[in-house]
Amino acid sequence: MLLLFDPQPPKVGWAVFDADKKIDEGGLYPESNWIEKILKQAVAGGAVEAIGYFLCHGGGQIVEPVSIISAPIEKKIERCIKYLPESNGLIHTTVRECRRRFPQARHVLFCDTALFSHLPEVASTYAIPQTLRFKEVKRFGGFGIYHQWAWEKLKSLTGTHLQRVVSVYLGDQTNITALSGGRPIDTTIGFSPMEGIPSATSCGDIDPSIVFEILANGVSLNEINEMLMRKSGFSGLLKRKSNYLEVISCADGGECRDLLRYHILRYMGAFLALLDGADALIFITDHLDESLPFIQTILDGLVFLGIRIKDDHQTGAGYRTYTSADSAVKAYGVPCDKWSIMQEEIQQINERRTRS
Amino acid sequence: MKILTFNCGSSSLTFKVFDIVDGSPPNPVFSGKAHRVGVKGSKPSSIEFHHELTNEQLEIPLSNHGQAALMVLDKLRNLNVAVDYIGHRWGHAAGYFTTAWITDDVLAKLKSLTPMLPIHHPAMLKVITQCRKTYPDLPQYVTADGAFHSTIPPCAYTYALPEDIAKKYGFRKHGFHGLSYQYVVRSASEFLGLPLERLKIVACHLGTGGSSVAAIKYGASVDTSMGYTGLPGLIMSTRSGDIDPILSTYLMANYGYRPDDLLDQLNKKSGLLGISGFSSDIRDIIQKISDDPKAKLAFDMYVYRIRKYIGSYGVLMGGVDLLIFTDDIGAKNWLVRERVCNKMDWLDAELDGEENKKCTGEEISVLQTDSSRVKIIAMPTEEELVICWEGLKLLRRGENAVTV
After folding, report:
1. Distance from the B390 Cα atom to the nearest Cα atom in chain A, whole angstroms
2. Is the per-residue pLDDT at A283 higher than 50?
3. Catalytic residue at B145?
4. Residue A187 phi/psi, 5° resolution?
5. Region B335-353 average pLDDT
6. CATH code for the part of the protein at A2-111
7. What is the rounded distance in angstroms from the CA atom of residue A200 to the CA atom of residue A260?
8. pTM recorded for the entire structure
9. Which of B340, B346, B347, B373 to mutate to test the interface with A (most CBs of A within 10 A)?
């Protein structure tokens, strides 16, 4: 049996797999006996063989996308809490608890920033004084697990040339990465997931002076963090809890969708400039069918690059092709699901370990 | 009638006297520029004057903009050039005015706008105060820089903040260098004989202090890299440009920085100075690219950020017809242009390397190759002329005060 954890503050998301079959999933507050609750809910036989944990921000500590958790790694996870206190705090608690309870299981850590630990210096450096940069301030990126997984999957499925790629994750936290030969050269997420494209609840790029003006009006640092992280983005603009699916359905009249599209095109343009054009655009999302009209409006803005859009989207095994054979730039859609990505990866580790 | 115009950069002061004779375009009769005002660099500050056939350049310590303005007023007095009006460029009017006579009320309003452009506004106020002190009876006006960007659409000017917070504080993208963009797009389209209404233009205003990029589609600004203040966007001489908004709270919460100190560091100690560690001047940095890794990183990051913005705006407009480089660095630095335009096949833009090196930046130069679909131009900007145009408009309206 396989147990997976993903921080979804204030809860911890969990899923239970039996081999490659998902048995159950949910979200719980990490209070007393919560692990028992999961085990009880997920009526599965057998012992817990492996546990996967999703770490959103590995900072400068964890630079491997996937690793087996040892005592030193658990220590490192603890040192990562400060980068993203809520999410990382939850995952640290979970790791500590589960390692104590399941000493026989294989504990696997997925680190979402690791792919970006070798970004070129021009992309990872902020133009601030060295004394500030030396306080672990750099672009750490995020969603590396998704971008890497989708690129590898598409490469093996299509057998196409994926040298210069702009990879777009569409969802509550839309973000974009420029890939050259599968290696990231730049990404929208910066030091924290706050930078880049506005999300369901966080502000994305804003004038950095704004923080100081709010602060000067007597608002505390914690309140500002909370405001920018939880009360901004589409939820802040619409004055109620909102999400990606609602935004792309234009429930508000389309203003948020236009804003999201603007930020996506803005960053796609920036990355196209860095790559001097692209061979392929990849759209990764949990909601591929619902996203189709939105992806279409994005591609409409890129027609000047010689993109030719097909009406009947060919559905391949595990991906879609939006462009015709003569399109100068190809566009693909890849459906994703975090639990399956983690499960596939752990299964591969198990197979490799069994072989060796 | 003569109008004296003052145009404060963060480290420069440009000035010009226009003689206005009915029916003719404004004729510059006196001009000049103070350089490296208040800058700590490898070279001392200096001031140049041009009048009739005489050109003069003095190396002189200039610790602030008021001091430079006084030198200009004294020089004009010595030359017996009497002016009737003084016009000033103002950075950020937050929608209160586009051009207005300076009354006590307006001056009080200007002072209250200081935080929106904390490097420029104090310098501009010093110049205004100096002029009012020397010539208390001379009518003076300010013209706001951001008005050109009033056409930017909501998706580009809105920050995704809680709606009540954005409203309460007035947070939105305003943009700057509007006078410069107004001048260069008009002059470039006239020079090329291509109507502005049909051009998609990316204009890079690269100054010795502040820099920005703007997307101008069919004559109207649709996006620009500066924001609510002049801090975001490109990497500038001492300003950081774009950074993660949470960096500031992280540094204050974990390392105890005081807000005013940190904001000061982002405005005055970051950018090229912050990366290179030795100079805020891209020209100093270029001298050291080959033997100082920090200088190389500073230069590479400077170019990299410009390239990203050109790409962004190219895509937002669905292509580019004209790429303009202006102001001191944009018009005069061939290496910056060469690196920025390197590998722009995807936009169908190609710089002519030889023409680019020959370009002095003193006049409009066309720099693309024959096969490049995108036109590339380097040209000086003339914000002073736009300040003069705006003053003439104000005089025609016959207003002597503007309600603030």
Report:
1. 29
2. yes
3. yes
4. -155, 160
5. 98
6. 3.30.420.40
7. 10
8. 0.91
9. B346
